[in-house]
Amino acid sequence: MNFKNLTIGVIGMGYVGLPLAVEFSKKLKVIGFDINIKRINQLKKNIDNTKEVSRKDLMKSKNIIFSNKIENLKNCKIFIITVPTPVDYRNKPDLKYLVNATNLISKVVKKNDIVIYESTVYPGATEELCGSILEKNSGLKVNKDIFLGYSPERINPGDKKKRIKDIIKVTSGSNLKTSKIVSKLYSMIIKAGIHEVDSIKIAEAAKVIENTQRDLNIAFINELSLIFKKMNISTEKVLKAAETKWNFISFRPGLVGGHCIGVDPYYLTYKSKKIGHTPKLILSGRSLNDQMPILIFKDIKRIINLKKIKNPKILIMGITFKENCPDTRNSKVLTLFDCFVTQKFKVFTHDPHSDLWDKKFINRYNVKDKIKNKYFDVVILAVKHTEYIDKKNKIFKSLNKNGFIYDLKYILPENINHFRL
Fold first, then answer.
1. H or E, element range at 400
2. Among the listed residues 206, 214, 204, 209, the one whose alpha carbon sits nearest the alpha carbon of residue 285
3. Are residues 167 and 263 in the same domain?
4. Which of 178, 198, 218 is the last residue before a domain boundary?
5. Which residue in 76, 260, 325, 339 is the catalytic one?
6. Residue 157: what pLDDT?
7. Domain count of the chain?
């Protein structure tokens, strides 16, 4: 395939799709497509509410056309689908965005076009589900008329050091020729290198276990923290001692949320059950991590009762699922917030990064509002934003005399009198 005058369509202008479109626009013509007209209009004004791409970089991206109109995709030869793949209330894969995007592309896909997926799925989904939809709706046959690729996203929201070009890209295709084309395409923008695998299923499986492994490691440390708390041993001091061994992997206890780590294991376990194997270890770790907001709530409530604090005023610092990003999707801090609200506690939130997506759900301070001169009985350090680290010595000034800090993210030094998980 000749890339010289190629136009590619990137479907989904979120945390994954927009940075990808911007990088490709440095080499090719790009149609940045999203069904959300509000999002498209903001991008046309060089505004990115996810804060992944700066206004300056958007202004320099002259080769992108942002659109919510399907006809603008008709001249594309390669389509890259980057839509969310969450789970439903039963923790089963919710593929409606993926199906809808595939249905949409099937209206404009042409002979010899390539459709590449970056969304996290269970092994087999790209070819078995998406390929079937494309064939049925377009009348074109996969590997005869049209071709599939899969290159899982590895975006780390809020990370300004490791960008798309700095992270090795796994690539694959529905046949060898397509695989080579997909690898060549991504090599145009990825400086870290390409890792081409033998099949789409291998690439799908690699993606889904990356976050499953991390989920299990955090679950292990969470369980250790619960054990050591009952033994009145400092988890942090235990971990620092263990880390002196060269092959001990460093993790810290805490909440596991977001659209990847807390979701991807369910995609793997769903497929595993379908083929007759019920995974025990993965589901056990997932169950423990999902319980952590309730366990933390109970521990904080225990301390409140121990200190005999009446009608405590509580401040939760940080509501996003991770540090230095505005993303609140599947944030377990909001689950912790709900625990307090359900039992009629007076609870407030503060977050210098959060956008307004959750304003209707929570009573939060304006991001410009200063915490000083506001006094609380309980301050929960829930997210390790840089702003909180920089102002850690001032946090105590927001406490009432008998109040306490519960440090979930190890922001405060070990020798300061406060509570930890």
1. strand 399-407
2. 214
3. no
4. 198
5. 260
6. 79
7. 2
pLDDT score for 371: 52
Which residues, other chains included, contact 211 with Cβ-Cβ below 8 Å and sequence gap of 6+? 120, 260, 261, 263, 264, 265
Interior CA angle at 189 toward 184 and 190, to 5°?
85
Question: pLDDT value at position 39?
Answer: 97
Q: Same structural domain for residues 168 and 251?
A: no
126 with 257, same domain? no
Instruction: Give the model's pLDDT for residue 368.
Output: 40
Active site residue 339: no
DSSP states of 73-88: GTT-SEEEE-----B-
Two structure tokens written together for 94: 């919710």
DSSP string computed for 337-386 = HHHHHHTT-EEEEE-SS--STTTTTS-B--TT---TT--EEEEEE-S--H
Sign of the Cα pseudo-torsion (327, 331, 336, 337, in order): positive
Distance CA 65, CA 380 (A): 43
Tokens in use for 120?
Answer: 């996290």
Residues 193 and 252 in one domain: no
Structure token digits, residue 136: 């049925």
Domain enclosing residue 270, as ranges: 245-420
Q: Is residue 189, in this structure, part of any structural domain at all?
A: yes
pLDDT along the chain (421 residues), means of 10: 89 96 96 97 94 93 95 97 95 97 98 97 98 98 98 86 92 98 97 97 97 96 95 93 96 90 95 96 96 96 94 90 88 93 88 62 43 76 89 77 90 76 71
On whether residue 237 sits in a domain, the answer given is: no
User: What per-residue confidence (pLDDT) applies to 62?
Assistant: 87
> Which domain CATH number covers 179?
3.40.50.720
Q: Could you tell me the pTM of the whole model?
A: 0.91
* CA 172 distance to own-chain centroid: 22
**Same domain, residue pair 42 and 152:** yes
What per-residue confidence (pLDDT) applies to 162?
83
- Same structural domain, 108 and 253: no
Identify the domain boundary among 198, 232, 253: 198
